[in-house]
Amino acid sequence: MEEQSRAGFRRLWLSTGSGNLADGILLAGLPVMATTVTTSPSLVAGVQVAFMSAIAVAALPSGVLTDRHDHRNLLVWSNVLRVLGLGAVLAAVVLGDWRLGAIYAAALLAGSTEMVADTTAEVAVPALVPRTGLAAAHSRLVGTQLVMNDGVGAPIGGWIAAGSMGAGMAVPAVLYGVAAAIVRPLRLPAVDRPPRRPARTEVVEGFAALRRDPLLLRMGTASMLMNVANTAFFAVAVLLVIGPMALPRSAYGAVLLAVAVGGVVGSGLADRIVDTIGVRRVLQVSPLVLGGAYGLIGLAADTVVTVVSLAVLGASGIVWNISSRVIRQQRVPAPLLGRVSASMKMLALAAAPVGGVLGGVVADLAGVRWVGALALSFGVAAAVVLWRVDPDMRPREDQPSEPARPTASRRSVPVEPPWHPLPPIR
Questions:
Q1: Which of 71, 76, 136, 167 pairs as cysteine with 124 (C-beta 3.0–4.6 A)?
Q2: What torsion, rounded to 10 degrees, do the Cα atoms 343, 26, 379, 58 define?
Q3: The Cα angle at residue 184 between residues 61 and 59, in degrees rounded to 5
């Protein structure tokens, strides 16, 4: 049984790697494709707005789907839908030549299906590894996401998209197909699922559980503010690269590689950082590092400063994202995990599309460099929300009857790489 679980996790891991390589190629390529159609900051930012809007809308349904349905089937079909969707988008371009609309459609497809796939993969992990192995399993899974998204996918995506819009969508479609094929033989332990009830009832239960947990609620609120900063900056980042930094379009993905490098380096130091300063300080300082990095990039508009700042951003993000994921899994009962995870993500993502709009408007009115100052202000606001946070906060007594899992101590927060700069903080 233990060997089957290890084999099952390997399949999940490899499928995640293929899917996230496709994500990295597509998500780095779409803004580059947009600059071949228009130079308007607002229209280029529309790619990020479409992507984040799709993720936000899909967050709650993905939680209900994850708690209701077989995880293997969800992973297979989310990737199959991406293959079919990208094929349809490409056909529409060939037949109708509506390139900007096709780019937006691909962003909507990527956001909605990524939320289902990522939520399902996250929730499937506890069924494949023992509780003591959660940290290592998530480290491997999220580390793979980092390397495939930023370290491999982003540079390839920027280069491919600069030369061919068709190839920029066809290559990810093939990789999504590979991901579906890898995970299809996965066998998960049988799970006793409660009787199906109206979706609205199940969604409300997830929100209620989140509302009663003060730590998760504050983390979700801070994530929302950081995602505004994140989306505002990366909505127009490609214009910063080809404008003030005077680099070619194909260099955009290579610049994003700095996030992956920083994350890999930071993964070796994260355990020491958490052990030295504790979870509380990590949660408080991470938003300040995020905002400060964006502000410095906007101020300098220099290639070296940008690369170094993105590397620092990646290194700090390693602790934040994995802390959020593991604290959530340690505090939330298994029958509610999918819905609470989706509810927290919904809160974190609710205002992200607004960030894309704000980034485009500020770039239009004041110039693309001022978007860094905008992102800085939201990072500071997130730090204020978390300044009095206590990792030992317990859910209120009216929490559902299932016993809550232990809170995260300093040592219980694992070492994992950070978020991809285009997908959100969750």
A1: 71
A2: -20
A3: 15
Mean pLDDT of all residues in 315-325: 76
Q: Which of 334, 327, 382, 331 is nearest to 355 (CA)?
A: 382
Model-wide pTM > 0.90: no
Structure tokens at 167: 């190839």
Query: For residues 376 and 149, which has the higher predicted lDDT (pLDDT)?
Result: 376
How far is residue 220's CA from residue 347's CA, in Å, rounded to a whole number?
6
Residue 80 burial by Cβ neighbours in a 10 Å radius (0-12, 13-18, 19+): middle
Q: Is the dihedral of CA 49, 59, 198, 79 positive or negative?
A: positive
Q: How far apart are CA 171 and CA 167, in angstroms?
A: 6
Q: Closest by alpha carbon to 352, among 234, 208, 211, 188?
A: 234
User: What is the structure's pLDDT at 368?
Assistant: 92
- How confident is residue 232, by pLDDT bands cut at 50, 70 and 90? very high
Residue carrying the six token digits 């497809």: 109
Residue carrying the six token digits 């030549």: 97
Is 407 exposed, middle or buried, given 0-12, 13-18 or 19+ CB atoms closer than 10 A? middle
Give residue 365's Cα distance to chain centre: 29
**Model confidence pLDDT, tens digit, residues 350-377:** 778 888 899 999 999 999 999 999 999 9
| CA 410 distance to own-chain centroid | 24
